[in-house]
Specification:
By secondary structure, the protein is an all-alpha fold. The chain has a domain at 22-89. The chain is built from six helices and no strands. The radius of gyration is 27 Å and the shape is elongated. The two termini are 40 Å apart. The mean pLDDT is 78.
């Protein structure tokens, strides 16, 4: 969904967080799917090893594939001690629908009638409005536009 001028954004009071996380990036990235604060107490060794691997990996790039050998013991430990399974790859990039208390905005009518919209806009223009039609070329996708000379 794209944001437009009519999109309702949350107020500043809704965005205030009482306490922010005090973890640094490698530690947070190592356990982001497990809620880092809980894991740090229950499985400090696995989290620390994985976070150090991410921190030292290829000049600070923190590439997860290079630390898979330390990620697997962390996954097993989290599943055993906390009962949380690592989500499948792509889980966070999928669409997740949730129920909201807010009223849905009205949906626009589709399909749009562009010729009516164009006519309406053109009718609203003043009579002496300068329109230079010679600036526009006919759309011809089968030609390379960078070689046209007309």
């Amino acid at each position: 969904m794209t944001a437009s001028a009519n999109t309702e954004l949350p107020s500043d009071s809704e965005l205030v967080v009482p306490q922010e996380l005090t973890l640094s990036t490698p530690w947070l990235k190592a356990v982001v799917v497990y809620m880092g604060a809980k894991c740090e107490k229950e499985m400090n060794v696995e989290v620390t090893d994985y976070a150090k691997c991410l921190d030292d990996c290829r000049g600070g790039e923190m590439l997860i594939p290079y630390c898979r050998r330390l990620q697997y013991p962390l996954d097993i430990c989290v599943e055993e001690k906390m009962g949380i399974k690592r989500p499948m790859v792509g889980y966070f990039s999928k669409l997740h629908v949730h129920e909201s208390q807010k009223e849905q905005p009205p949906r626009p009518e589709y399909p749009r009638n562009y010729s009516e919209e164009f006519s309406k806009v053109m009718d609203e223009l003043p009579e002496n409005y300068p329109i230079k039609l010679d600036n526009y070329k006919r759309y011809r996708p089968y030609y390379n536009t960078f070689t046209e000379n007309d």
